[in-house]
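#structure-requests
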Amino acid sequence: MSNTTSDSSEFHAVSSFGIPERLYFALLGNIVSGNIADGMYAHITLNSSLAISVKINEVTAIEIPNDTSADTLLISYCADKEWYDFLLSMNVSNENVSVDFNGAD
């Protein structure tokens, strides 16, 4: 299923990490512009002509003591270990990510 909208948001990913026992992939960072909600898609650039879309299952505010570099966590539930491993291997850090409702499950 694909949703479309002209509204786009921007997220600055400070870092990415995984939770292996649950196959969760997470982007840690800050919302730069717009609003980000569950069900949207983060578009992570692989190179100048290719990006992948990752469904955001949860958007969570976080607090890290004595650190203001990140205040939001975007969590994606991975369908299988291969997709989880692929996302984790991308090592997303210090990167702006476009977020909108355009994507496919």
